[in-house]
Each structure stands twice: as C-alpha cells, then as structure tokens.
Amino acid sequence: MKRVAILMYHQVEVARPAGRFVCHAATFARQMAWLRASGVALVSVADVARAARGEADIAAGAVAVSFDDGYAGVIEAALPALERHAIPATLFAVAGRLGGRDDWQGGGAALLDASGLRALQARGVEIGSHALSHVRLSGLGDAALEAELQHSRARLAEVLGRPVELLAYPYGDCDARVIAQARAVGYLGACSTRSGFNVDGVDPFALRRIDIDGRDGLHTFRRKVMFGTNRWTMRDEARYFGSRLWLRLSGRRQGGKR
Where do the coiled-coil regions begin and end (predicted)? Predict the structure, then answer.
C-alpha cells in the first residue's frame, strides 16, 4: 500500500456558511467531481484498513472519504454528490448521541438518528463508531474506555443489523492503551487525525487522515490530496516544484556530460 489518503470531513451543509468544520454542499460537490475526474482509485476506509492488515491490495494514490461525528446534514448535503460520482464513504457516528445535538463544536448541530444511519447504510455509506460519548479516550480508566469502545460498537450493530468494523478516535486522541483496547474489542481498524498518507507498514489502528477545512478552495483541496498534508502552503508548493525542476535540469546536465 503506497500513498493512500483518507479525507476527513465533519459537517456538510446546504444553508450554513463555511467554517473550520463546516463544508458547504456546493464546495463538497466540486471536490467530489474533481476526485472522480482525477482518475484516482476511490475506496472505503475498510479497504484501507484491510490493506494495512495485509488482507487486501489497493492502488497507489487511492483516496477514501470519511465523515466524523455523524451530522444529519450529510444526507441532504453530501450524499447527492457521493452518489452522483459513485464515491464510497464512511461515516463515524457517536453511538450515545444518535438523534441528539453535538456539544463539542459549540454549534449544537443536529446528529443523525438511528433511521438516518440505516438510510445512509442502505445507500452504500459505511458506518463506523466514533465512540459512545465523544470524550478523550486516553484520559479514561480501563472500564470506561472499554465501555466507550465496546458499547458503542454493540449499539451501532444493533441499530444497523450488522457488525461495525471501524472506529475513529474522538479528537484523534489515542495512545498505546487505547489502541490495544480497540484491537481487543474486535474492530478491523481505526482512524486517527494524524496528517499524511497511509503507506506500507502503517498500523491499521492508527490510520492517518487529511483534514479538509470547510474553507478550503479547490486549489487547496487538490494540493492536500496530492501531497498528503493538512497545512499545505504556497511556499511549500514553490519549494516542491522548484526542487523537482532542479532535479530534472540537473539530470539533463549530467546526461549531457556522458
């Protein structure tokens, strides 16, 4: 597995203005159209986890799309673009807050209820766990940690009628103990918020993701996908392409001396 990217979104909305964790539906649609037109392989997070476990093979440069928290707006604002472009997606739901509102972003946005999750699953979206109550897992005692991971998985499986294989750590907060517990309760793999590509040797329980800011223009989005970083700047781009040009010219000069 080489240079596989998992994109991380939160809210996608039709009416709300763009913000750090809010992507406008029109922006999201343009990004999905570009992904499909780019020719990269489009895969699920489960595909990436299986490849990291050595159980499957996926193409270099593949991209997976994920959503954290389980916001209700995903159905209206994101699903049409995903279906139009036949793009797999994974949504991580907070199992103890289904049908409620978030209190971790400060906006009190609506979360999907059980019927909403089932509707997404029926239309091809993979559902994973974002733990039980969206707390920082590394600070919990052993019993509370097991409950967050095991009970969330069991509750979502009951809602969906099938096993839940994937986990995304709330806030990306995980350490060796949290990872060991995620393995122990039976997940296939888990996503962090650490930036970068997933490459050979990546821990399937510490998959990297690229954070898509709702204010990212298409140029920034393309660069994040191409270079596997959350904080790509124009200076980075100039340095990258400058080094590529120098290597190309240097190779030509050396070739001319032979």
Answer: none
Q: Who contacts 224 (Cβ-Cβ below 8 Å, separation ≥6)?
A: 7, 210, 212, 216, 230, 232
Instruction: Please state, in angstroms and rounded to a whole number, the distance separating the CA atoms of residues 167 and 40.
Output: 25
Task: Give the global pTM.
Answer: 0.89
Gyration radius of the chain's alpha carbons: 19
Q: Between the CA of residue 132 and those of 16, 154, 155, 185, what are the distances in Å?
A: 27, 10, 9, 14
If residue 127 lies in a helix (H) or strand (E), which one and from where to where? Answer: strand 126-129
Domain spanning 5-227: which CATH class is it, in words?
A: alpha beta
Give residue-wise pLDDT tens across range 33-85: 999 999 999 999 999 999 999 999 999 999 999 999 999 999 999 999 999 99
Give the residue extent of every domain in the chain: 5-227, 233-258
Q: In this predicted model, what pLDDT tens digit does every residue of 226-258 receive, in sequence order?
A: 888 776 555 555 554 554 455 455 555 545 443
Which residues on adjacent β-strands are paired with residue 12?
Answer: 23
Q: Give the CA distances from residue 216 to residues 184, 222, 223, in Å, rounded to whole numbers and listed in that order.
A: 37, 10, 10
